[in-house]
TrEMBL record:
Stretches that traverse the bilayer: 695-712, 719-741, 747-766
Keywords linked to the UniProt accession: Membrane, Transmembrane, Transmembrane helix
Protein name: Transmembrane sensor domain-containing protein
Domain CHASE2, chain residue ranges per copy: 403-707
InterPro entries assigned to the protein according to its UniProt record, in alphabetical order: CHASE2, CHAT_dom
SMART domains linked to this entry: CHASE2
UniProt organism field: Brasilonema octagenarum UFV-OR1
Lineage start: Bacteria, Bacillati, Cyanobacteriota, Cyanophyceae, Nostocales
Length: 769
C-alpha cells in the first residue's frame, strides 16, 4: 500500500519554518506525527531567483505570452550550461537546508518509518508560495525510493464531497486558448485519442461561452492549452487574442463545476503555480501545472507521456513521475525540462487511476442537484441571525465593561490623530510659572509675588483672572495684602479642592473670598487604568464635609464671569445643562465607551475636546512682571487670564490623550471648549445614545456577513473584511472630527465576528449538502 507522507511548513524564509511530519497509509489517519524546524534561508530564495532568471533568459518559444529574445548558438549553449550549473547549485543548497540539525529528527523519523521498497506519495503543505517553487523532486531523501513523487498543497484541510450517478465516460472540457506562436493542435489530438473519454473542445472561446459550459454541464477533467502566466501570486490565462483573466474572475462557474464532479485539471501552459494556488482556493481537488515558462515541445511531449501512462492504468502520481522523468531526454536542448510538471492538490484529495475515474460515480445533471448554493432568502436569514447574535454578544460584553479599556485607548488614538487648527483662541491668556520663574522667585511663590502679579494684570483690564495656585495658608511675606486683594477684586477667582472626585485631600480656599469667586480645582477626572483625563466635572453638589463648598468648577466660574451677566443657565440634574438655550448633554454611566457605576458619573460631566496647547497664548511670570505696558495691554485686555505652574518640577501634571499636560492647561482646554460652543456655535464633543450605538454595531455586523457571502475564497473574504475595517475606522474618525464619538472597537469586533461566523456556517452547510 502507498505511504502518504505529509510535510507541513508554517512560516517563511526570513524567520524560518515550523515543520510537522505526518506518516500513514494512503486513505487512513497518520500513524506518526513529529515536529521540527527549518532555519531561515533567504539565500535559498536568492539562489532560486538566480536560476529562474537564467532559465527564463534561454528565450525558447514557450506558452507564456511575452516577447522572446533570439540568441546565436554559442551564446545559447553557454546559457544552457549556466542554467544546468545553477540548477545543480540550487539542488545542493536545498539539500543542505534539509540536513540542518533542527530538521534532523524529522529526517530520521521518516527513514525509520518508511521502507525504501514502499511506494511513497509526498505532500508539501504550506501557505508560502515560494516553498512550492523549490525543486523538491531533487531532495536526496526521495532518491532512495523507486516510486516517490511530490505533490504541493496548502495547509487548509477541506473534505471533498460530490453527489453523483454512474457513467462510463470520462468527460473532458478541453480549452484551447490563445495559441499565438505555439501549436495546441497536438494537445487536441492527444486528448482525442484517449480511450473512454468524451471530450468537448472550446477553441479560443469567449469568456461567456466558457462560463456557460462550466455552469450547464458536468465535467471530470478540465484541460487548458495556451498562454498563461503568474502575476504576484495570481494566475492569468489568455483565452483568445483579446481576452485574459484570472481564475478568480470565474470562481462561481468553477465552484459549480467542482460541486458537479470536476476532479482534475491540467494546465499545459506556462508559469502555472499562480493558477494552482487559485484553483486550490476554489476547491478543485487535483491538478497538474507547469512551474515555469514551458517550451512548446516540452509541453506536448509531457502531455503525450502522461496520458499514455495514465490511460494504461497507472495512478496520477506514478503517471506524472514517469512522464516527468522521461522529459530528461529533452534536457540537452531544454535544460531542467523535468523540473516543470508538478502536481498540486487539496490535502484531502485521494489520487485515482483512469479506470477509477471512468467507473466512478460522476455527477447528475446540475438541474437535479440540490446544490449548496444558498438561496437569497437563506443568505438573508443567515446574515440576520448571525448579526443579531454577534451584536447581542458584543453589546453584552460592552455593558459588562469588557471593552472599556480598549475603547478608551481607541478614543485616545483618534483624539491624537484629529487635526488641531493652529488658530489661537484670542479670548484666553495663560500666565505660566515655569522652571526659570521658580528659580528666580522660589516655590511656592510668595504671597507678595502673587499679589504683585495680580496687581499688574488688573491694571490692563482683563475680563477675569483665574489663580490656579492654592492659597489656603500664608506663603512667606505679603499674606495680608494678597488676601485683601482677593477679597475685594471682583475680577479675580481663586481655587479650592473638594477632595472627593479623585480621592485627593480637601484644600481650603483663601480666607474671606466670597463663594461666587471660588471654583473647585479637581474637576477633571482620572480614568482607570492609567489615570488619563478625558472627563471634566463642571458642576457638582455641595459637599457638607469639605471646606471647599462651591458647586462650580474653576473653569465654569471663569466662563460665568466672562459671559455677560444676562446669560441664562439652566440645570437639569442627570440630563443636561443649558447656557443661553444651548444644551450640554452630560455623560451618563453608559455613555460612549464608558461602562461605569452611577457614583462615578455624578454631577455635570463633559468630555474634554483637547486641542494643541499651542492654541493658547502663553506668557511667563517673569515676562509679565518685566514687560512694557503697551505689549501687556494687547495681551491682557478683555481676556480670560489663567495663572498656574507648568514647569517640569510641578506635581500638577496629568496624563491626557495628548500626553502629559499641566493642570492649568487642562482648565484652559475646558474654558475654550465651552466658549467655542456658546459663542462660536461649534458642536460639543458627545457620544451617541445607547440606541444609536447598538444600531451602528448591528449595521457593521451585517456588513461583515454580506461581504463574507459576496466573496467566496477565504483570501478575498479576508481582503474585503480588511477593507471594511479600514472604512469603519475612517468613518469613525470622520465622525470624531465633527465632535461625535462613534463606537469603533465594538463595530470592528462585530464586523469580524459576523464575517467569521457566516463563513463557518456556509462551509458547514456546504459539507452537509
Amino acid at each position: 500500500m502507498t505511504k502518504l507522507i505529509v510535510l507541513k511548513l508554517d512560516g517563511d524564509f526570513q524567520q524560518g519554518f515550523r515543520v510537522t511530519l505526518e506518516i500513514g497509509a494512503e486513505g487512513e489517519r497518520p500513524e506518526t506525527e513529529i515536529t521540527g524546524k527549518l532555519p531561515s534561508a533567504p539565500e535559498l530564495v536568492k539562489q532560486y531567483s538566480g536560476w529562474q532568471a537564467t532559465y527564463r533568459s534561454l528565450g525558447k518559444v514557450t506558452r507564456e505570452l511575452k516577447t522572446k529574445r533570439v540568441r546565436i548558438d554559442g551564446s545559447l549553449r553557454k546559457l544552457r550550461d549556466e542554467c544546468r550549473t545553477q540548477a545543480k547549485e540550487l539542488s545542493d543548497r536545498l539539500n543542505s537546508w534539509l540536513k540542518t540539525e533542527s530538521f534532523f529528527s524529522i529526517r530520521e523519523k521518516w527513514l525509520e518509518r518508511v521502507s525504501t521498497s514502499e511506494p511513497v506519495r509526498v505532500l508539501i503543505c504550506t501557505e508560502h508560495q515560494q516553498v512550492w517553487q523549490l525543486p523538491w523532486h531533487h531532495w536526496d531523501l526521495l532518491e532512495r525510493y523507486k516510486f516517490a513523487e511530490i505533490g504541493l498543497a496548502t495547509l487548509e484541510y477541506a473534505p471533498q464531497e460530490q453527489k453523483s450517478i454512474h457513467e462510463n465516460k470520462v468527460r473532458i472540457l478541453g480549452i484551447l486558448g490563445n495559441s499565438e506562436g505555439i501549436k495546441v493542435e497536438e494537445d487536441k489530438q492527444q486528448l482525442e485519442n484517449l480511450p473512454g473519454a468524451q471530450t468537448t473542445f472550446l477553441v479560443e472561446p469567449q469568456r461567456q461561452e466558457l462560463n456557460d459550459q462550466l455552469w450547464e454541464q458536468h465535467w471530470d477533467i478540465l484541460f487548458f492549452a495556451g498562454h498563461s502566466q503568474t502575476e504576484g501570486e495570481r494566475g492569468r490565462i489568455y483565452l483568445n487574442q483579446s481576452d485574459s483573466f484570472s481564475l478568480d474572475e470565474l470562481r462561481y462557474a468553477l465552484q459549480t463545476a467542482v460541486r458537479g464532479g470536476l476532479q482534475f485539471a491540467i494546465f499545459n501552459s506556462c508559469d502555472g503555480l499562480g493558477l494552482a494556488w487559485e484553483l486550490l482556493h476554489l476547491h478543485i481537488p487535483q491538478m497538474i501545472v507547469m512551474r515555469e515558462p514551458v517550451p512548446d515541445k516540452v509541453a506536448q511531449t509531457f502531455l503525450k507521456y502522461f496520458l499514455q501512462a495514465f490511460a494504461s492504468g497507472k495512478p496520477v502520481y506514478e503517471a506524472v513521475q514517469e512522464a516527468r522523468q522521461r522529459l530528461q531526454g529533452l534536457e540537452d536542448e531544454f535544460p531542467c525540462a523535468s523540473w516543470l510538471p508538478v502536481i498540486c492538490q487539496h490535502r484531502s484529495a485521494v489520487p485515482f487511476t483512469w479506470e477509477e475515474l471512468r467507473a466512478s460515480k460522476t455527477p447528475v445533471p446540475l438541474t437535479q442537484l440540490s446544490r449548496p448554493r444558498v438561496s437569497l432568502w437563506r443568505r438573508a436569514q443567515t446574515i440576520l441571525a448571525a448579526s443579531l447574535v454577534v451584536t447581542s454578544l458584543v453589546i453584552g460584553a460592552r455593558l459588562q465593561g469588557i471593552l472599556q479599556n480598549s475603547e478608551l485607548k481607541a478614543y485616545d488614538t483618534v483624539m491624537r490623530l484629529q487635526p488641531h487648527p493652529g488658530i489661537q483662541d484670542k479670548r484666553i491668556l495663560v500666565v505660566t510659572v515655569n522652571d526659570d520663574d521658580v528659580k528666580q522667585f522660589g516655590k511656592p511663590l510668595s504671597d507678595r509675588t502673587v499679589e504683585q502679579l495680580l496687581t499688574k494684570l488688573e491694571k490692563y483690564q482683563p475680563k477675569v483672572i483665574g489663580l490656579d495656585i492654592y492659597r489656603d495658608t500664608p506663603q512667606k511675606e505679603g499674606w495680608d495684602k494678597l488676601i485683601e486683594r482677593l477679597r475685594k477684586s471682583d475680577r479675580t477667582l481663586a481655587i479650592c479642592q473638594v477632595g472627593e472626585s479623585n480621592g485627593a485631600p480637601a484644600i481650603d480656599p483663601p480666607p474671606q473670598v466670597p463663594p461666587e469667586r471660588l471654583g473647585f480645582s479637581d474637576g477633571f477626572i482620572h480614568d482607570p487604568p492609567n489615570d488619563t483625563i478625558r472627563r471634566y466635572t463642571l458642576v457638582m453638589d455641595r459637599s457638607a464635609e469639605s471646606p471647599c463648598t462651591t458647586p462650580y468648577a474653576f473653569s465654569f466660574q471663569l466662563i460665568r464671569h466672562y459671559l455677560p451677566a444676562t446669560t441664562r443657565y439652566e440645570f437639569n440634574p442627570g440630563k443636561n445643562l443649558s447656557i443661553n438655550s444651548i444644551v450640554f448633554d452630560v455623560l451618563k454611566p453608559y455613555s460612549g465607551g464608558y461602562q461605569l457605576p452611577h457614583t462615578d458619573m455624578l454631577g455635570y460631566q463633559l468630555l474634554i475636546d483637547y486641542r494643541s496647547p499651542d492654541r493658547f497664548s502663553q506668557v511667563s511670570l517673569t515676562q509679565v512682571l518685566n514687560e512694557q505696558d503697551s505689549d501687556l495691554l494687547k495681551l491682557i485686555k478683555d481676556r480670560i487670564v489663567l495663572i498656574g505652574y507648568v514647569g517640569a518640577s510641578t506635581k500638577d501634571k496629568h496624563l491626557t490623550p495628548l500626553g502629559k499636560m499641566p493642570g492649568v492647561i487642562v482648565h484652559t482646554q475646558m474654558v475654550s471648549q465651552i466658549l467655542n460652543v456658546v459663542l462660536d456655535r461649534r458642536p460639543l464633543l458627545s457620544p451617541w445614545s445607547s440606541l444609536s450605538n447598538t444600531v451602528w454595531v448591528w449595521g457593521w455586523s451585517m456588513v461583515g456577513g454580506i461581504l463574507t457571502l459576496t466573496f467566496c475564497s477565504p483570501r478575498n473574504q479576508g481582503i474585503s473584511i480588511g477593507v471594511a475595517l479600514l472604512a469603519n475606522g475612517c468613518i469613525c474618525f470622520g465622525f470624531f472630527t465633527q465632535a461625535v464619538w462613534v463606537p469603533l472597537i465594538p463595530s470592528a469586533l462585530a464586523l469580524v465576528m459576523t464575517g467569521g461566523s457566516v463563513a463557518y456556517i456556509v462551509r458547514t452547510y456546504a459539507r452537509a449538502t
